Amino acid sequence: METLRIRDTDQRTLRIFAIGAVLFRMNGLLEETGFAWPASRKDDLRKLLAHTWSVKDEESLEKHLNWLWEEGGQASYRKTESFLGTLSFRDRETYFERLNGNAALFNHARLVQMYSGKLPPAGITAWDLGQYVFICRTAHSAGWMDADRSLELATAAAHRAQQLYRDWTEFAVAYLAGRQIWTNQPSAEAAKPYIDCVSKLLTESNSLWKRLDWNMDLLTERSINPAPNSE
Question: What is a single Pfam family found in this protein's UniProt entry (predicted)?
């Protein structure tokens, strides 16, 4: 299997994988290395994919990528947001009182309510796409996806993000909201490591998000096939 190599001079490929920069950074991978996983870590990567995303082989990889593309956390967020929007203030408070004994459902509903109306129309799709790109790169290093397919799918995700969000800042806000809802942890302490990482990506002069234009043409000389299981 050919290894996907990303060099500093390959600005378009760096821009494509920059969508997953937060997860790359949080896992100790930087753009200077082309987000490269050491070959010796293949088993560790497979454990990471299995533990975090239930990806255990090529079949489950395709299934999860399809889910992220077609539904992801955005589907649950939108469903809950729509439901809460049908309730009056009093009915909503009654609903939350009924959920008080179920921490998972209560936290999810409260987080959705907190972000409702404050995010772009695309909602938390940024989080789904960030995971998508990270998984494509990691699955390649784990030996479950070839280099061309990994880059093809990541390109489709990066281009989709461009269509849904106006800039890195808008993407970042939606990304952080999505991750908080995904983890179902409303505390500021739990979110802080990711907030700090995103802040650095948005402000550090040498970070990918500062160096690479959000509106860079990502489709030039590339054939985009957006669905993981398309022929």
Answer: DUF1266
Amino acid at 30: L
120 φ, ψ (degrees, to nearest 5): -60, 165
- The residue extents of the domains of the chain are 55-211
pTM score: 0.90
Residue 157 CB contacts under 8 Å (≥ 6 apart), including other chains: 19, 69, 129, 132, 133, 136
Among the listed residues 186, 51, 179, the one whose alpha carbon sits nearest the alpha carbon of residue 105 = 186
3-state class (DSSP) for residue 176? helix
Which DSSP symbol is given to 37?
A: P
User: Does the CA dihedral 116-121-125-127 come out positive or negative?
Assistant: negative
Whether 31 and 14 have beta carbons less than 8 Å apart is answered as yes
Gap between the Cα atoms of 144 and 62, Å rounded: 10
> Nearest 5 degrees, angle CA 176-CA 83-CA 113?
35
Q: What is the pLDDT of residues 32-65, one digit of tens each?
A: 777 878 888 899 999 999 999 999 999 999 999 9
Helix (H) or strand (E) holding 208: helix 208-211
